[in-house]
Amino acid sequence: MPLDHSVIGLDGEPQERSWTAKDTMLYALGVGAGTSELEFATEKKQRVLPTFAVLIAQSRGRRFGDFDPAMLVHAEQGFELHRELPAAGSVRTTTKVTGIYDKGSGALVATEARAVDVETGELVVSSRSSVFIRGEGGFGGDRGPRDDWTLPDRAPDHKVTYGTRPEQALIYRLSGDYNPLHSDPEFAARAGFDRPILHGLCTYGVTGRALLHAVAGSDPARFKAMSGRFSSPVFPGESLTVSIWVDGTDVLFRTAKDDGTVVIDRGRAVVA
Length: 272
What we know:
Radius of gyration: 18 Å
Number of helices: 6
Distance between the termini: 46 Å
Shape: globular
Strand content: 25-35%
Strand order of the largest sheet: 1-3-4-5-2-7-10-9-8-6
Structural class: alpha+beta
Order of helices and strands: EHHHEEEEEHHHEEEE
């Protein structure tokens, strides 16, 4: 069955999600926070890593076709925080497909989500994401909007390197993403990998930690937005270096592995 373009622009059914202080601590551990970040990894004066916003804004939208899930990869992710996240809370999220684009070798499916506080209706998170589905392109459609991001012609203002652990994906999956691509060697082989890969949103969370500490003074209240494009897989155990360029409240970044392979490209963030 080809992808269903009739779902574009239609809101899915609102879905509620609640989280606890334990959930936000587990997420912090899943993206590599350790003993130097106890305000995120323990309950004492607990605060929440800004990239947790992506998880609470996730919901099941309308089906947009049948395809082999092993052919789907996370392509892009962005979010805007409208207030600092509490250690525990509840939101109601509505998601819609905003575009299905023809990339030749595959299709890019873009979605938007809005998460509001269940009790007050206040907007908490706006999220944008896209997935790339190999083998679903070639239908003659629009290739999608272009991004004017350019690499700054100067050295980064900050470079932050974090390692990941061999079992990093097994910790991160406990935050809710049980895709076997990140845990099952046989499933990963079907997708063309010799072993399970790290979740893209785990790499994203590691990058978010680097940005939080380098340009937002480790203060989640100052962290307003972040976006980036996933450009290459990461294997658990590899190190990640985030190069950061600052221009006032606007931030550009790029995340790469030790061998120089860029894994998150066209990165943008906004801090107060």
